[in-house]
Amino acid sequence: MFKEFKEFVNQGNALDLAVGVVIGAAFGKIVNSVVTDLIMPVVSIPLSGVNLKDKYIPLAGQAADLGLEKAREGGKAVFAYGAFLQNVFEFLVIAFTIFLIVRQINKWRGTPKKA
Predict the structure, then answer these.
(1) How far is CA 56 from CA 9, 14, 50, in A?
(2) Looking at the 3D structure of the chain, how many domains does it have?
């Protein structure tokens, strides 16, 4: 089994995977910053400057105006719809960016389009 593992690692597949994971993590941080620091403030303008990430519905009787982090401190249940929406938006930005990259790579390679 150790011999097989050594062959696998030496094939380059593991190295390619590791590089992809590291680049993906760095890309995720960049997208997170773009969404949090650039896009969401612009989205909040029509919402009267509301920070969408802090929006939640208390489920355990706590006050609704504490802020998300304080509401979670006591271990109380909250329905954090704002944080969820921000994460969905981050996913969509990442998915669209990867779509554009793969599309461009396919054009460079001359990969035929699916019918």
Answers:
(1) 46, 41, 12
(2) 1
Tokens coding 110: 């001359």
The answer to whether the pTM exceeds 0.90 is no
Task: Determine the Cα–Cα distance for residues 57 and 65; give it in Å rounded to an integer.
Answer: 10
User: Backbone phi, then psi, for 114, in 5-degree steps?
Assistant: -75, 145
Q: In this predicted model, what pLDDT tens digit does every residue of 33-56 receive, in sequence order? A: 888 888 888 888 887 877 778 888
Residue that has been written with the tokens 């998300």 in this structure: 68
Does the CA dihedral 99-103-109-115 come out positive or negative? positive
CATH of the domain at 18: 1.10.1200.120
- How distant, in Å, are the alpha carbons of 52, 55, 60 from that of 72? 16, 12, 10
Helices (H), 1-115: 2-10, 13-33, 40-44, 68-73, 81-109
In a domain, 39, yes or no: yes
The DSSP 8-state label assigned to residue 58 in this structure reads E
CA distance 11 to 31: 31
